Amino acid sequence: MNLDWVPMxxxxxxxxxxxxxxxxxxxxxxxxxxxxxxxxxxxxxADRDFNSDFAKRRTEGWVAxxxxxxxxxxxxxxxxxxxxxxxxxxxxxFPDTAQILAWRPVMAELSADGTMAxxxxxxxxxxxxxxxxxxxxxxxxxxxxxxxADNSWKVLADxxxxxxxxx
Length: 167
Hints:
Nuclear Transport Factor 2, Chain: A; globular
């Protein structure tokens, strides 16, 4: 799996966030009973739960967290859209349970109406049972979320960057 990211990916992620924020300006489709702090914590918890679900169920755990209109920007320059395309990409990219990918959100921001959010965090990758220095990689990610009518969150877009390896 190629984990190298080009700087253009950042532009794509920011463009996706702007487009998603613009599409949410129509207002909340339900009565809002959560404070901004509660909404921020709910999306941070959704991101942590997404990580746990992926660790347990692998590809199916990953796909379950995506909105039906969700996209994943890959390190290979592909942009799988929708559950089937994302499932196919992840099955190809993470076929081996020895591949460990884990992430932690470090911040979240919300749209003014509380229907959209993004999380930024750090991720780590390594191959269990192999030389950790050779297989390890780290980076940051940005995930764009859409709040559902039941107050749950689904991923609209996900992108990551890889930190350069230190000599």
